Amino acid sequence: MRRVFAAIGIIGSVLNLAVFKYFDFFRETIQNAASAVDLNWALPALDILLPVGISFYTFQSIAYIVAVGRGERAPGTPLDTALYLAFFPTLLAGPICRPDVLLAQIESKEKRQLLQADRAIWLILSALVKKVWLASWLADAWVKPLFANPDAYQGLELLVGMYAFAVQIYLDFSGYSDLVIGMALLLGYQLPANFNYPYLAQNLREFWRRWHISLSTWIRDYVYIPLGGSRKGWWMAQGNLLSAMVISGIWHGASLKYIIWGAMHGFGVIAQNIIEKFRGKPVRGVLATVITFHLVCVAWVFFRADGWHEAVNYLSGFGRFDGPLQLNVVGGLALLVVFFVASYFSQNFSERALAWLNTMPLLLKPLVLATVVLVITLLGPSGVPAFLYYSY
Amino acid sequence: MTKKPSAQKNSSPLATLSVLAATLALVIWLRHDALDTYWLQTKHSELGLSELSEDSPWEGGVRFTNALSEALTTQESQLDELGSRMTLAANIVLNGPEFLERGRSAIAADGKHGAADNARPFSSSVEVSRLKLGQALTSAAPTFAPDNSMTERAELPPLTGDGRIVLTPQDKVLLVGDSMMQGVAPHVARALQKANISTVDLSRQSTGLAYPSYFDWPATVQKAIPTSKITVMVVFLGANDTWDMLLGGRFERFGTEKWQSVYASRIDSMVKYAESQHVRVIWLGAPNMGREKINSGVKVLNQLYATGTNDGVARYVSTREILGGGDSDIYQKHITKDDGKIVTVRTDDGIHFTRDGQVMLSNLILRQFEIPTVHKSS
Q: Among this protein's residues, is A212 annotated catalytic?
């Protein structure tokens, strides 16, 4: 009986999400299909406002329903569950929390303690550097002009623009995650990490263990494994993998470009699995890291471009070397190297900065923090930047 | 992840709160002028953090910020110069030493923007055959104007018999506007690029003509037109301008005579400056809006745009008809096309456009031009 209710709950959640997210897309598709068979349907265009954070609380509610349905946990009280679904820091764009992480902390009867305040402050500063300064600058200087009008530039510039978007979306989204995890820490909650230097991944599977971790583990647990996972043989596992990646793509938006993005990652991981099956050892090394980064970057072009036509047009510009350079590609490539070196040493640096922040006299802290905030806001472009993942 | 034992111990909530509050207070002290501007631009009322006397301790924070900002700007311009030298060096490596001969004069003449702005072929002669220029653009060796003083256009871009502006690959189109323009600009830029006509897109969200302290379009345009050698300017804004203005420390209600005359003078300064530089202006009116307050406001703005651009050189182009699905007076989120299909042209906020809407507006702009057909040699 409990399983029936759980199934109804999951179907309801998915339908709810689908109606809000995809109605307009399917309306046009159905309309076009109807006109192809000479039916002149004019389906009404409903004025649907997308509720704030619908994707993310749908994911969390499915995780909750599954846990209760499997008997892994008792149902929470309505208030606790509502807070779990609408927890302010994570509501807009995750990280997607599981009931055993967030709901358990909400239900805990212990007195809530402020944990690791310095880590929280460090995370918030990191978010400001990543988002207000670096990601915004990259977007203005490199990403927007190139993706808006790729034909005006030549191959080298387009190549650097592609790298720039990869770095931008990482800084944007991981900066957002730092901010949320820092805010939650200040409220006394510990949230799971969402990023772990993804571009240092040596292969594509590892990339997905380091990028948007809360989504990829959610897809693994609630899409890939229910589809059959690797239980029905190697080939079925590859099919399930591809399906899971494509579903992840469709979730980002009802558009062919996201499906291609998902499929590229799916086929990429399958290719990796095939190579490893024949070589008998995992894909690793510097060359593998470089190839992985480039695969991810090319897929990002589909993610960023207005549509898949535009993405193909962008990529086809790589072979064009007419006309002089307008942008400083040498500087751009040098910054990419700096980014990788910084990523490599970042963890170490964070720990040291944190230790330093820990020992700093209380009275000095506001002065240092205010100065850092001031410099970041002066370095970044003016205006209030929006996070990329708010639209998903 | 290894955690230092010291990081694991609980922090004192009071100490942490004090640190955060003191940091916030310091940031406000350092940047309260920016907060004032932000408040004015988003809430359309005065926050009043800034004092009138400039040498009070309260204003010291802003003075410090401004000094720091200047120091950073100096650093930045040095970096920019280094950047353009690197671009030049890369071009010499890629295109051979003849690039140096042409590039050097460009750098000398134009300072830090030299390399970037002279990078595209540019010639003052309108008579250059279009085909020839198309070939020059696609050939490996770039052509350069030898002398910067020759690159200024001495006359307005010509018109066709039916009033369209004749564009050639020597023309450069400046796109000015707010977030409405941000959606439309890439479509225009891509279409013009197909004919080897370059564009400069300066559109920026939340901007307009009502709050120059936040963003000053007349000043921006006066800088951009000569540096980028613009020949046509397209303006599309107004979505952020239907509010009271702060004039001389007092709020002037939206739409009053004084408000209108100040707003009109800002339109005029943009249009007149452009015309003095032999630049044609296409000024798009704002469409009907899905929010009543803004919708009634843009009607006033459109009137000002139309009267400010009726001198025969600048032109006003209404967007209400095309997005109204035939009825120019009613806001339409969806319009029914001739084939009976319903397309959504506006987004949920009642202001911005869907991709279909952007393409319609882009086509409206492109219809103002006669664009040469260029056959690219692959």
A: no
